UniProtKB/TrEMBL annotation:
<dbReference type="Pfam" id="PF01070">
    <property type="entry name" value="FMN_dh"/>
</dbReference>
<comment type="similarity">
    <text>Belongs to the FMN-dependent alpha-hydroxy acid dehydrogenase family.</text>
</comment>
<dbReference type="InterPro" id="IPR037396">
    <property type="entry name" value="FMN_HAD"/>
</dbReference>
<keyword id="KW-0285">Flavoprotein</keyword>
<dbReference type="InterPro" id="IPR008259">
    <property type="entry name" value="FMN_hydac_DH_AS"/>
</dbReference>
<keyword id="KW-0288">FMN</keyword>
<keyword id="KW-0560">Oxidoreductase</keyword>
<dbReference type="InterPro" id="IPR000262">
    <property type="entry name" value="FMN-dep_DH"/>
</dbReference>
<dbReference type="InterPro" id="IPR013785">
    <property type="entry name" value="Aldolase_TIM"/>
</dbReference>
<dbReference type="GO" id="GO:0016491">
    <property type="term" value="F:oxidoreductase activity"/>
</dbReference>
<feature type="domain" description="FMN hydroxy acid dehydrogenase">
    <location>
        <begin position="13"/>
        <end position="395"/>
    </location>
</feature>
<protein>
    <submittedName>
        <fullName>Alpha-hydroxy acid oxidase</fullName>
        <ecNumber>1.-.-.-</ecNumber>
    </submittedName>
</protein>
<dbReference type="InterPro" id="IPR012133">
    <property type="entry name" value="Alpha-hydoxy_acid_DH_FMN"/>
</dbReference>
Amino acid sequence: MTIRSGNTDRSTRLCRDVLCLDDFEIKARRHLPKPLFGYISGATETNASLRQNAEAFQAYAFRPRVLRDVSKRSTETSLFGKTHAAPFGIAPMGISALMAYRGDIVLAQGADQSGIPMIISGSSLIPLEEIAAVSPQAWFQAYLPGEPDRIDALIDRVGAAGLRTLLLTVDTATLPNRENNVRAGFSTPLRPGLRLAWQGISHPRWTTGTFLRTIARHGIPHFENSYATRGAPIISSNVARDFGRRDHLNWNHLERIRNRWSGKLVVKGIMHPDDAARAVDTGADGVIVSNHGGRQLDGTASPLQVLPEIASRVGDSVAVMVDGGFRRGTDIMKALALGACFVFVGRPFLYAAAVAGLPGVLKAADILKTELHSNMALLGVTEVGDISADYITRA
């Protein structure tokens, strides 16, 4: 089943003047109601970590090599035994179906057609089984409480859906202070009112193409993937219960998950080399160096800053991946040079899906692949694996 977000020709036209991923953000700011755009773009408290994520790339500069035949260069990358078209994928993003019609499915389809992986969010408003039916090679991100029965049940559900890569996000011990969301008018549960009604009236393309279309065809959105059973409606006062008891989660639970889950296991939210080493010792197949896009502990270092130490500590034994602030092919090359083998990109893909549906996601992926392909030539390499610390220096 292919989801077509509104008029495909119009969506394609909306992408024509998009030259870089940042252009999708500009369009999304106009297209989305202020509370929804604020939810995507904002972070926590002072947004210090969000800014650091973007600024960290400026601390490094390239040392290109010249007079090399780079005519046969390729962006293809192998990860967990599968070859991908490029060394990047789509990060998990909650409530995507509120931003774009059937947003998670659109992101999954775009990833498949682009030859890259996509991670289903544990805060998705679409059941993971529906997404897996469209994209069985997708990964699943779990937000788990420290409750063994709920852990076991969700793991069994993911396996029954046919998904083979499980990602445990570990930096969400409690809900952060996202005052940015409050100022923008966003809340969980979503509270209907005059302010929200006006946002709907003043953003008619989103209202008719995403919101009303969703309600008419699928009813009030629920959190579908927090546990083995269906969660609360997004407008319910019981929503907060779906996010409880995560402060109980500990290393013993990770060991339990490893013993129960037979597929690939990735731990996301690692920012310290000791934690990376312990995750490896517990049986993780990979780690994602991440500060949750700056959306958890404000003032946390950027993933790029801590990546070299973590890669040096565990890089030979597991896949070391990274996310946070990636917008350019050059950003990806800097992460690869610093020890990552793969990168995940979040907000830009959701902006693209919101603005132009599947054509937007395909356009965003093509922009990054094209930039990376050109930049590899200018750096003087032909394979992604050739990008090393020899090609980078402190700016």
